[in-house]
Prior knowledge:
Blueprint: H1 2-16, E1 42-44, E2 50-52, H2 53-61, E3 80-81, H3 83-95, H4 113-128, H5 132-148, H6 150-158, H7 161-175, H8 181-191, H9 199-205, H10 208-220, H11 223-237, H12 242-249, H13 254-264, H14 268-282, H15 287-298, H16 301-311, H17 314-327, H18 331-338, H19 343-350, H20 356-372, H21 379-386, H22 389-399, H23 403-416
Antiparallel strand pairs: 1-2, 1-3
Amino acid sequence: MVLGWRRRKSSNKHRKGGKPNMELVIPNHFKCPISLDLMKDPVTLSTGITYDRETVERWFEEGNITCPVTNQVVRNFDMIPNHSLRIMIQDWCVENRQHGVERIPTPRIPIAPTEVAELLMQVKASARGLDQDGCLELVRKMERWGGESERNKRCIVDNGAPGALASSFDAFANDSVERNVVVLEEILSALNWMFPLQLEAQKSLGSLASLRCMVWFLKHQDLSGKEKSIVAMKELLSFGDEQYVEALSQIEGVNELLVEFINKRISPTITKASLRVVWYLVSSSSNPSEKMKLAFVELGLVSSLLDILIDSDKSLCEKAVAILDSLCSFEEGRDKACSNDLTIPLLVKKILRVSPLTTDYSVSAIWKLCRFGEKDEGRALVEALQVGAFQKLLLVLQVGCGDETKEKATELLKLLNPYRAELECIDSDYKNVKRSF
């Protein structure tokens, strides 16, 4: 096939009587010495060598302190824009437009740390005075800077923007969410590309007022506002600080909102972030976590998680099994799981089918249901045997797993063994299983 295509191509050229097109060659002095790509923003170091700005910045960020070409130690990291070379490159692009070369845009001058520091001082002053319009204009200016280049984003983040924005968010949320909703949403939008946050920013964003504001967004804002809010909440809880879990658990209606998002699946971003937030809430060791578990079980979360396990992608399945395992750690959760005929079959099916982490959570959940389930003793074991749990657990031990999973799998095999002689294994692809509503 390839040879035939080449012959046709060459015959077409011969028929037209033209010379074969020569491959376009980029002049060597237009290429970055590091990436060997056409330079878009040529800058010259103190060593006199010109590089593409983005590439040489990455070189220094990786810990290098020498000039890649001369191998000299760079003592002055100032980068001087090479405007003459950039204009020559742009002219060359225009001349070769017929070959598909696009003219490189004239790069904007990167922002300096002093500019960022000055802007952040103004943001803090506006927040202290609750100047919504002034703060809104400053935050939008910061977002415009960040939108110009990745370098600007790094400069903004490295010079303390997350902490300044988070404290401003807390100040306006403490005043009034409804009155300051526009500036609050803009601040949250800017924070979304600054994760992960430093400790100072975490404290401000994790305050009760800030969390109440994010929950208000989940209730009243449009899809974009909901996404920004749930992502910020997920990032905040990911740091593992129990005080944020306790603060969120005090807010009325947060459980219902999260279960609603999981059921409706209005957006992949919201669904995944909601599952992660729920997992942080139910897996916490704090006292409110037990109340949260009970509240989620009473809201029908177990059935919602099983629906996800039937036909969702791997990332959702992993999060759903993790939450289900946590809910099986207390009696009400186990009772609810055992009362659903899909629980054991779906957990067994997910072993060795999704990811190693999903396998660990599935084995753990089955172990909890069989080991601690007091009602209908032996029922969970019989169900597990009927859908092939014994064979799956043997495979888990053969392919290798963590020590904790190995212990639980071994104990499950001992519990299952007495029932094997009386039962035959059945299998199902679950394709015709209907969801419970």
